[in-house]
Amino acid sequence: MSENKKAEKIVGVKGMNDILPADAPLWELFENTVQSVLKSYGFQQIRTPIVEPTALFARGLGAVTDIVEKEMYSFVDSMNGDPLTLRPESTAGVVRAVLEHNLTYDGPKRLWYAGPMFRHEKPQRGRYRQFHQVGAEALGFAGPDIDAELIMLCQRLWDDLGLQDIRLELNSIGNADERNRHRADLVAYFEQHKDLLDADAQRRLHSNPLRILDTKNPVMQEMVNAAPKLLDYLGEESRAHFEGVQKILRHNSIPFTINTRLVRGMDYYNRTVFEWVTDQLGSQGTVCGGGRYDPLVEMFGGKPTPACGFAIGVERLLELMKANGEQFAPNQCDVYVVHQGEAAQLQAFVVAERLRDAGLDVVLNCASVSGGGSFKSQMKRADASGASFAVIIGDDEVAKGVANVKAMRAENVEHNQTEVPFESVPDYLIAQITCGDECNDPNHHHHH
Ligand code: ATP
Ligand code: MG
Hints:
This protein has helices at residues 24-40, 54-61, 66-71, 91-100, 144-160, 176-192, 199-204, 221-225, 236-251, 296-299, 314-323, 342-357, 375-384, 395-400, 425-435, and strands spanning 44-45, 51-53, 73-76, 83-86, 109-118, 130-139, 167-172, 257-258, 270-277, 286-292, 307-313, 335-339, 362-364, 389-393, 402-407, 417-421. By secondary structure, the protein is an alpha+beta fold.
């Protein structure tokens, strides 16, 4: 290849991002926190395929939603002609799997998932074509208690992540009958103000007028604010359910505001809808959306099963964590092993393995295109790795049966460089690393 013309570079797909090593610690921190919070509420993980039959979304999400209208990555399997779609969200897949495996046979289930989703949108800050969601779905729970629990779980997650500027907006969109009665009045109202409707709103006027309430168009705000409110159309049961959610939230001091214009993109939602919103991310400020979707399981051919869930937009949440100055140690390892000469290399492998046995993260210097590198260039790599210690092995050390252990960080320089017998290096380093730390658990000294 190198003798020929340089090959043309292939670049990634627009709107689909690489998550680079520099960001990995932040993703890990987020994922670990999410996992432990979900576990603390008894949620169990479910992993469904990224590709599903197109009909799953066409039927599940409703034909007039943004997603089904224009955002799906759909294609035909060239091997067998099956219409397939990269999942734009996970609720439909989770419900499909629950039915396929009859997971609710022995009672209600609390489930969660995490992974990439795909929507063909215009890429911009906080809006990508491949993005990630973490979500929870509670299936088989009918009362307002689970709605409140899901919301409180989110609040705990923000708290554990140290995020403060996220507020909760809450609404109820009732049931289909209530929405139909409201819809008639809403369409009549919008028709009275037709001159103010933008192209998007005109298009939705008869297909999905509720979504017009969602508009960000400044020209329409005043008119939309005065539109008939779905809350005023709720019957006794829907109202009681909504009251029930609010009562639990108030009792647990979870602040919220009721946003009568809050609706969800997906058709299958009913009753409780909520969003967690921040002002720190510009116009893509919704970091989590959720609500109840009682009709969905039956729409998929299952027994009537009430359900409630939410989905967090991970990229937006991570951007918020960064905006809040979330610090993370980019250290690649605890120890970097430097060596020179054939005998030293063999010894270095053994020492590195014993250090890993002791629970330390170890990078062993390995040859690059230009070889293993001089002692000096290896020390540079050791420095760049963020290691607290370098273990140095050359011909002299092999002859003496010792390694030179060098402290790399300012706080350790008092024990700057010491000869340590090969077999004692793990004990020596564990003692050095843990004594400089408040944490006494040798397995956790480097993960905080
Ligand atoms: P929006 O109105 O912003 O398009 P949505 O109603 O389509 O949001 P949901 O389908 O409810 O969003 O998804 C839940 C969360 O996933 C959103 O609140 C957001 O944080 C995140 N999200 C949705 N679409 C994207 C995207 N294209 N890129 C990044 N994050 C997204
Ligand atoms: Mg959307």
